[in-house]
Amino acid sequence: MIIRGGTVVDTDPVAVRVADVLLNGGRIAAVGPDLPVPEETEVLDATGMLVLPGFVDTHRHTWQAGLRARRPDISLATYLEFVFGAVGPRYRPEDVHIGTLVGALECLDAGITTVVDWNHIQHTPDHTAAALDALERAGIRVVFGYCTREPDLATARRVLAATGGLVTMAIAPFGPEIVSEEAALREWRIAKELDLPVTVHMGGNGVESAERGLDFLRRNRLLGPRTSYAHGNHFTDEHLKAIADSGGALSVSPVVEMQLGFGAPVTSRAFAAGAPTGLGADTVINGPGDMFSLMRSAYAHARLDSDFTTRDALRAATVEGAKAAALDGVGTLAAGSHADLVLLRTDLPGVAPVHDAVGSVVLAMDTRAVDTVLVGGRIVKRHGRLLAENVATLLTELEESVERVTATA
């Protein structure tokens, strides 16, 4: 396939030009003006559109799609009780499947081609299998976070064996800030044994907890690369520098962090420390699920006390997010990268005219602008419509599932 005549917005470094993008074998073969078209190549006309790498969501509980805005003004304590005490235990594997499937399709519809799915609904092996099947069926690139209260190496090996293709795996430990050090060691040692990346909630529970968690990692020689710290609001600048120096990264969920009272998002401070920093929706129970909202929120907050730019925000949504997800070949349009792309319309009220392409993406656009989405060179959305199976039927199934799990909740 060749994508012809669009305004190409690359991210590493940020650069804007009119060019073609040639795809071959699910990867980007070349980017440049007036590229020759090999025989039997499909031509995708991108005239009047922006062509970008697909967005990367670095922290999302995808299974919660059916709980959208269910508790818009919730507190953290009430959120935890609602998720872990009220509705979470009621989720059957089929509820996990439909929630995860629709959540993944929601991502694709919004131009998010990669998601780190922090999957803390794995009550049984059947729940895990249901989530994996849904993600594969959706056709999104995903880092599947293995998360359970009773992790064991044998089960983790079986989950790893079930991944492949667009689905890779990470360990999503509860510890060290949420469970005991003994339990945390068990989780982190599984990651080390299987040579898997880690995605962990840390730094969002107060300064003392943040310090204690990092101390645990240092003492056990676990502070290292391919580790993404979700939230991190109470990490000091010194903590962030230590994470950066170790090869670690941050995942910021700006709306949910401020709404739930975690504290100020660390986006600009993490950038200043040199730590790769991505953006995540976290939960749609009380926050938005699209990257445009996340970019704007992160940008607006960061501008209060820094010179954070719209280009920084776009990088957080793409290439920086890919680094935080420990994925190569994602988040840029460099030759050899995965052909995960989004084509954005510029002919819409509230978008046109486009004077600065990056500024328009971050400040003016929303999901209306997402015309075409490709994952691994395969079109999953075209002319503003998902090409998945009957979406209306899936939404009906989701409503039926949620009606059951939220009864009296």
Commentary on this structure:
- This protein has 14 helices and 17 strands.
- Strand 2 and strand 3 form a beta hairpin.
- With 409 residues, the chain is α/β, with parallel strands linked by helices.
- 37% of the residues lie in helices and 23% in strands.
- The chain has 2 domains: 101 residues, Urease, subunit C, domain 1, CATH 2.30.40.10; 270 residues, Alpha-Beta Barrel (TIM Barrel), CATH 3.20.20.140.
- The relative contact order is 0.17.
- Helix 2 crosses helix 14, helix 10 crosses helix 11 and helix 11 crosses helix 13.
- Strands 1, 2, 3, 4, 5, 14, 15, 16 and 17 form a 9-stranded mixed sheet that branches.
- The model has no long low-confidence stretch (mean pLDDT 97).
